[in-house]
Amino acid sequence: MNHAESDHYSGKKVLVTGGTGSFGHTVAQKLLTEGVGEVRILSRDEAKQDLMRHEISDDRVRFYVGDVRDYLSVERASKDVDYVFHAAALKQVPSCEFFPMEAVRTNVIGSENVVRASEANGVRSLVCLSTDKAVYPVNAMGMSKAMMEKVAQSHGLNNPNATTTVSCVRYGNVMYSRGSVIPLFIRQLKEGKRLTITNPDMTRFMMSLDDSVGLVEFAFTNAKQGDLFIRKAPSCTVRDLAVAVSNLFGVTPDIDVIGTRHAEKLSEALASREELARAADMGDYFRIAADARDLNYSLYVDEGDVRQTQFADYDSHTVDRMDVSAVERLLLSIPEVRRELQGAGRPIEAIG
Ligand SMILES: O=c1ccn([C@@H]2O[C@H](COP(=O)(O)OP(=O)(O)O[C@H]3O[C@H](CO)[C@H](O)[C@H](O)[C@H]3O)[C@@H](O)[C@H]2O)c(=O)[nH]1
């Protein structure tokens, strides 16, 4: 966070929905070191809140038990708040396939509650966390996140004088996040089990947690009403990821190919060509502005956007693909991976 950004937070009140996850922890710690006045954590699980309370132990952190599905609990938690980071979501692809309406309730209606409560309470800026699975979605999780993005963008379209600036960010795969494939591979290696690989050729964008938090901060600092931001990210195949993790642990893995899981894609796109045709390249980031026209299309001369044909999707199959050694280097930059390696008696210096 640079100085200009820290000034933003100084003495301010910030709400993080779904704040007991890894994003919430990291962002809360950062805000506290940047002089934030108060960090509010809104989440459903009191046990996780209690753990976090003991871990952080700072009286500027306040915990609100509640659910984004319930407007009143969001409204209470966002009273007098300056900024909101909306991370609460159902994120697991397979469970959303079985319970799509639960994804609608949390990811779509819950997000609308966060937008409405933020506006009602005069929040200045709200950043909503989305995922690459919202682009050309094939699963209920991605579809509900795509709808969340639409809800966020419609706020400005319907309220020209809105107080709250609402923006979105899209993540790729956050490395070592809870329940994801990297900790799974590491556990399998440590237990001497075979690595389960869905499809060796499947590709995913890899992002560190720090990069993800950086993306949210970038959105927060730069957002205009309805903007959506992505961070440029390298991708890799699942095969190369498995080989890289195994190399770091000094193991030649046995592999089981288990086939794709419910509603998985072979590759992901962080942005579609339609979006890139109207995006601004901001170095490490793209800003995708909302379509700000009103509903009266006849006022506009519409010649069709020829630029769309000049762009390709920002797709994990085609952009900057890492080789195994690049994946190893990226893995070594993740603190949890380094801790795992140390725990397994693999000193980082020896690997480097
Ligand atoms: O046993 C396994 C499990 C997963 N994979 C593969 O590893 C890759 C990553 O899988 P994860 O389960 O770690 O991540 P997903 O891409 O399924 O989805 C994750 O990343 C998303 C962002 O795109 C969301 O954040 C979502 O919540 C999170 O689960 C995928 O290609 C998957 O097929 C395997 O090879 N073997």
Sum this structure up briefly:
It contains 14 helices and 16 strands. It is an alpha/beta fold.
Provide a descriptive summary of the structure in words.
With 352 residues, the chain is α/β, with parallel strands linked by helices. Helices cover 41% and strands 19% of the residues. The protein is built from 14 helices and 16 strands. The strands form four sheets. Strands 3-2-1-4-5-6-10-15-14 form a nine-stranded mixed beta sheet, with helices on both faces. Helix 2 crosses helix 9 (209-222), helix 4 (71-77) crosses helix 6 and helix 8 (181-190) packs across helix 10. Residues 91-93, 131-133, 171-173, 180-181, 184, 196-198, 202, 204, 238, 264, 268 line the site of galactose-uridine-5'-diphosphate (GDU). Galactose-uridine-5'-diphosphate (GDU) binds next to helix 8 and strand 8.
Topology:
Layout: H1 3-9, E1 13-17, H2 22-33, E2 38-43, H3 46-56, E3 61-65, H4 71-77, E4 83-86, H5 93-98, H6 100-120, E5 125-131, H7 140-158, E6 165-171, E7 173-174, H8 181-190, E8 195-197, E9 203-207, H9 209-222, E10 228-231, E11 235-237, H10 238-248, E12 255-257, E13 269-271, H11 273-276, E14 279-282, E15 285-288, E16 314-315, H12 324-332, H13 335-343, H14 348-351
Parallel strand pairs: 1-2, 1-4, 2-3, 4-5, 5-6, 6-10, 7-9, 8-12
Antiparallel strand pairs: 9-11, 10-15, 13-16, 14-15
Galactose-uridine-5'-diphosphate binds at residues 91-93, 131-133, 171-173, 180-181, 184, 196-198, 202, 204, 238, 264, 268.
